[in-house]
Amino acid sequence: MLLITTLFKFGRALVVELAPKNGLLKLGVCALIAVLLWIVPVPSGLEPKGWKIFAVFLAVIVSFVVRPYPMGPMVLFGLVILMAGNTLTTHEALSGYGDSTVWLVVAAFLIAGGVVHTGFGRRLALMLVSRFGKSILGLGYSLCAAELVLGPVVPSNTARGGGILAPITLSLCEALGSYPHQNPQRAGKYLSLVGAHANLIAAAMFLTGMAANPLVSRAAREVFNVDFDWGTWAIGALVPAIIGFSLLPLLIYCLAKPTLRDTSAALENARRELQQMGHWRTGEKVMSGVFILLIVLWATKALHGLDTTLAAWIGVCLLLLTNTLKWEEVISNDKAWDTLIWLGGLLAMANGLKAHGFIDWFAKNVEALVSGFSGMTVIFILALIYFYSMYGFSMVTAHISALVAAFFAVAATTGAPVMLTIAILAYFSNLCACTTNYSSGPVIVYYGLGYVPANQWFATGFMVSLFHLIVWLGAGLPAWKVLGWW
């Protein structure tokens, strides 16, 4: 009896007192989803392990919205259940933690810490406020302009968004008196969302805008024997991307309206603080040098061959060697290590879905779904399924690797216009990352700034997804018609 009483008290403390309000109910909902899917008959043609991984994966994704615990613990719970149930081996469960993208995101968080701690980010933010701070919209457009300029030359959207612009955005928010736990709605929510979603438009606009885009181009060559090269990619994206950049800050303004209305005081304060900062300090100079070096390394990858993640960690090491970034600051960067835990775990589950046949089963069912439809109808059905299937993936690269070639192959059997098929799936490969807070490196970094809770990120992301569908199909289809793509 004593043992039972002790276990009951421990369970109550674990679930009710440590979890947020209604934690028991929320955790129960997530567990119920996993159990129901776990015990129902496995769909025909699917490996039992693949179905079980999907059951746990779906429950974990639901937990990100209802939040019985933070994301890290929920992912760990999922991995432990899969290992204890002999669904994943220990090696498979830990496989995501060796992914280069995970460590690129961690490096981006550490670099962001250096940008903030040295004051370099604050100086840049104050300069931005001084130049564009006549309105909060002006700052939103400045982030879009930065993505548009850097998009063609920085071939990793995580490096561009997470490593370069997210730290500046954080300093910009703080310069406007907006902090994650104090006045986040003043400016932080708005600028975080603009920065993240602008990054995805730039990633969609250029073949070099995101590291996995060449996978789409390669699949187009293999399936259709079409060279969807840099120029073709960019000219097809030009019209919808420019419209998207033009309207995005206005859309986010409506969805996450900042409470900062009159920026004149902030503008004057920024100019005054910039004067007070005086000459550049040593730490700022070193940080700016490393910053420029990273941009050069990321932009010239084709020349030197250094991996994007390696370049980022070279930057981290330089900051440590010069004492610009202290080791104590590295190990105390809880956002970086929290992201490592939940992102690596999600990637392990995604790898499991691929290895145990769930992704192939899903692609075959999509093919069966669209059989009998006309080519144009097939394109739009595939486009919608491809876009919103991103909810089931923890990285854009994994989404592209798993599905794009299969979807191309499905379209090829229906007589769908080839160039139109390639274009829509190529651009949607990046735009679909708007849906969740775990979809890509830069989104994870922007979410990690702490200004936007997960449920609001999901809600905003869905609205942005509709925005992309309207802009890229509404403006894109006429432009692609002029190009002769359909």
Structure, explained:
This protein is mainly α and 486 residues long. It has two domains: 26-93, no CATH class; 99-486, no CATH class. The protein is 76% helix and 0% strand. The protein is built from 25 helices and no strands. The protein has helices at residues 2-17, 23-39, 48-66, 71-84, 90-93, 100-118, 120-132, 136-150, 157-175, 184-205, 213-224, 230-255, 264-277, 282-299, 301-304, 308-321, 327-331, 334-355, 358-370, 375-388, 396-412, 418-431, 441-448, 454-474, 476-482. It is globular and about 70 Å long. The termini are far apart. 51% of the residues are buried. Mean pLDDT is 85; it is low at 1-5 and 7-19.
Proportion in helices: over 70%
- Tell me the domain tally: 2
Count of DSSP strands: 0
Identify low-pLDDT runs: 1-5, 7-19
User: Which structural class do the helices and strands define?
Assistant: mainly alpha
Q: Strand-residue fraction?
A: under 5%
Query: What best-fitting shape do the alpha-carbon axes yield?
Result: globular
Succession of helices and strands? HHHHHHHHHHHHHHHHHHHHHHHHH
Task: Determine the mean pLDDT.
Answer: 85
Radius of gyration: 23 Å
Q: What is the tally of helical segments?
A: 25
Distance between the termini: 74 Å
Q: Report the biggest beta sheet as strand number plus sense, adding barrel if it closes.
A: none
Oligomeric state: single chain
